[in-house]
């Protein structure tokens, strides 16, 4: 924007120059100072700036150990705010075919939205409590202000170990009519 002012000889004036980036990118502009001296060219000042934005980081996959159906496993997950700006976190959601087997254990204590200060992190606890035997999987979505990674997706995987199933045949044995002092042998098939 043009700024018109007068300057007395041998005096100086401070002129504010503001920078308000609209996108995550580098900017290069030239500020031209015109004057009324016909013998001197206009003065140019190069203006450089970088528009920074919220940036999120963290691992993108959490593997839980094999867990019995009546047990649970816990993992701490670190959400990192990279760059020079605070990272806004709007919510955390777990979705997918086995979403009910995974819980954000500490999410109830968080007040959404919240900010993670620049170059800092926050930790959320993820609990795996398998609801069935076999491989279990879901996705944790971290809704945030990083326009390039929203939502930030983390794959959750675990294996539920069911109670061992055992079959016995026959289900009863009869040792009738065995003389005192004799040995009678029968077999039970266990599978």
């Amino acid at each position: 924007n043009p700024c018109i002012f007068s300057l007395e000889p041998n005096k100086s004036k401070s002129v504010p120059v503001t920078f308000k980036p609209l996108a995550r990118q580098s900017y290069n502009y030239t500020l031209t100072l015109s004057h009324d001296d016909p013998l001197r060219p206009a003065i140019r000042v190069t203006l450089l700036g970088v528009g920074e934005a919220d940036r999120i980081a963290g691992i993108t996959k959490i593997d839980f150990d094999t867990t019995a159906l009546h047990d649970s496993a816990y993992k701490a997950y670190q959400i990192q705010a990279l760059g020079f700006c605070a990272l806004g976190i709007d919510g955390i959601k777990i979705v997918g075919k086995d979403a009910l087997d995974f819980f954000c254990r500490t999410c109830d204590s968080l007040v959404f939205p919240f900010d993670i200060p620049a170059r800092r992190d926050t930790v959320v606890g993820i609990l795996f409590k398998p609801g069935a035997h076999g491989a279990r999987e879901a996705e944790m979505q971290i809704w945030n202000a990083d326009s390039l990674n929203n939502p930030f997706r983390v794959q959750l995987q675990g294996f539920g170990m069911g109670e061992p199933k055992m079959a016995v045949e026959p289900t009863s044995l009869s040792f009738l009519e065995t003389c005192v002092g004799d040995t009678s042998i029968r077999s039970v098939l266990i599978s």
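The chain has a mean pLDDT of 89. The CA atoms of residues 28 and 48 lie 5 Å apart.
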